[in-house]
């Protein structure tokens, strides 16, 4: 009789595991297809990681840790753009690195701050929040690494909202660019000074 009592518990556990696996499969297919359809060069897309889905409580609610991470990302991206363009006084439109990062920043700002003017109070459970880390090649020919945040419906069938956060590295300097001059069209040209914040290396 004791063994009979454990049968419903085992069956419930199996059903829960099957449900989680089914959800993860649906999420992987949904976000991968969405990335392929939204990027300039989908053939260069490489999904590095799809994080475990987390419960979402409204489209504009983020934990304090998430808010801190996003603000640090914005600060880092802005810092490298300001340094490479001399605070926007000498932008180099031929610099694929800078143009790619500027494009990512605009996409980040548009996606992150849209609809976030009101109070971001924790609401009722609205679906799932998923972070996807990927590498891709931008329209300027420069490879980059980013993290896309997705808000999905409860059934994991629809993307309700998304935004991209460029992944930057602060632990190394771009020594190849500092103090060097290159020849372009037969003329000597000073490269941008190196920044301690660079786009993560993508091989």
Summarize the structure in words:
The protein is of the alpha+beta class and 203 residues long. Helices cover 37% and strands 24% of the residues. The protein is built from 3 helices and 9 strands, in the order H-E-E-H-H-E-E-E-E-E-E-E. The chain has helices at residues 2-38, 64-84, 96-113, and strands spanning 46-50, 54-56, 127-137, 143-152, 159-166, 168-169, 181-184, 187-190, 198-199. Strands 1, 2, 3, 4 and 5 form a 5-stranded antiparallel β-sheet that branches. Strands 6-9 form a two-stranded antiparallel ribbon. The longest helix is centred in the first third of the chain and has 37 residues, at 2-38. Residues 9-18 and 172-198 have low confidence and may be disordered.
Q: Layout of helices and strands, plus pairs?
A:
Layout: H1 2-38, E1 46-50, E2 54-56, H2 64-84, H3 96-113, E3 127-137, E4 143-152, E5 159-166, E6 168-169, E7 181-184, E8 187-190, E9 198-199
Antiparallel strand pairs: 1-3, 2-3, 3-4, 4-5, 6-9, 7-8
User: What is the makeup of the main sheet?
Assistant: 5 strands, antiparallel
End-to-end distance: 60 Å
Count of DSSP E strands? 9
Number of H/I helices: 3
Into which percent range does the helicity of residues fall? 25-40%
Structural class call reads alpha+beta
Q: What is the beta-strand fraction?
A: 15-25%
- Integer average pLDDT: 77
H/E series? HEEHHEEEEEEE
Rounded radius of gyration (Å): 22 Å
| Uncertain parts | 9-18, 172-198
Q: What global shape is seen?
A: globular
